[in-house]
Amino acid sequence: MLQVTELQRAAPHDGFALFRLGFRPFYLLAALYAALAIPIWLHALRGGAWHGAVAPLAWHQHEMVFGFALAVIAGFLLTAGRVWTGRHTPEGITLALIALHWLAARILLLVGTPLAAGLVDGAFPFLLAAVMARPLIAAGSTRNYFVPVLLAGLGAANVLFHLEQAQRLDIPGGLPMRAALFLVLFLVVVMAGRVIPAFTASALPQAGVRRQPRLDLVALAFTFAAFSMAAVEAPAFLLAPVAFATALLQVWRQAAWKPLASAGRPILWILHVSHAWIPLSCALLAAASMGWVAQSVAMHALGVGVIGGMVIGMITRTALGHTGRALVAGRAETACFVLVHGAALLRVLAGLLPADAAWPMILGAAALWSAAFLLYVLAYAPRLARPRVDGRPG
């Protein structure tokens, strides 16, 4: 088996480094796309010219999952896969071609034909699943076999989305996108349970962080049930109690991770604050199922608060670590964190207001979101394009 030490000896330590490891191109592309996609969506929402392969609302929903979130997932997995297995994951020209595939799908969805967009975009999750399966199977990393399975599930949802948009499939409206969103969210919940308590315990050993495996299993089971019911739009008498119980379980689970102890560490509190949106979002799912709030309120809490918050927290932390820098959030990182959660708060509050009153808040949320990810691009593009500062590979 190829060991990590052999990987270290195999890599040069100078020159252009953007395609040395998966997080580098995909984090940069995801952040740039996040900054640009929302203004494009607002332009279409206000009646601007639209030449996309699918309708504007469908594009907006699809691209937040299969454009933005999946790019971050790809960068994370192509990097973590090397750590998990000690084996090579794509780099160099192979990694560049994978990134180009993702980029081609984004362009085709904006200006291409539905057939071309569907074929190229539909293939990407399956390509990523195959790429991840190879090192995991070769290394016997059974704990992580769920990764290619989940990616294949996302791929299936994506294919169904394109068939639905082409009116080739008669299924409940929006089901493929809801299924994809909740698959991504469940992955976020699972990974959060792995990394947040571990990172907090490592940085703050005096905080007394506790792991509760049985509670974790119960919380995850309820979360999966709530997300599954929300995806199929189960009736309120089923969804509301399960979603509300999930909210309570997630609060209980997070309390053992000592979130308040992270208050002086932005690199930690960003993860805890982002996780706090999970129980809030589940409570909003329960409220939405009973007609107390619009469903979009819960969806934006999940999409902007949970996914957006976790993404900005992880793409800063892992980029710092994998470029050989200290895991300390500076002014730029902290500003990104505040901007994303400001965007989440404004967007959720906007959903509680009448349409006319909500529009300024929607614009404000969009501006904060785009500013956060544009700031990330400006701060991190040089770091992602250059070799590690400690001379190690990656």
Characterise this structure.
With 394 residues, this protein is mainly α. 75% of the residues lie in helices and 0% in strands. It contains 13 helices and no strands. The protein has helices at residues 4-10, 23-45, 56-85, 92-111, 114-139, 146-165, 175-203, 213-231, 236-255, 266-289, 295-322, 331-350, 355-385. Helix 10 (266-289) runs antiparallel to helix 11. The two termini are 19 Å apart. 47% of the residues are buried. Mean pLDDT is 93; it is low at 1-12.
Q: How are helices and strands ordered from N to C?
A: HHHHHHHHHHHHH
Distance between the termini: 19 Å
Proportion in helices: over 70%
Amount of beta strand: under 5%
Q: What is the tally of helical segments? A: 13
Mean pLDDT: 93
Draw up the topology in text.
Elements lengths: L3 H7 L12 H23 L10 H30 L6 H20 L2 H26 L6 H20 L9 H29 L9 H19 L4 H20 L10 H24 L5 H28 L8 H20 L4 H31 L9
Helix pairs in contact: 2-3, 2-13, 3-4, 3-5, 3-6, 3-7, 3-11, 4-5, 5-6, 6-7, 7-8, 7-10, 7-11, 8-9, 9-10, 10-11, 10-12, 11-12, 12-13
Quick recap:
Helix 7 (175-203) runs antiparallel to helix 8 (213-231). This protein has 13 helices and no strands. The chain has helices spanning 4-10, 23-45, 56-85, 92-111, 114-139, 146-165, 175-203, 213-231, 236-255, 266-289, 295-322, 331-350, 355-385.
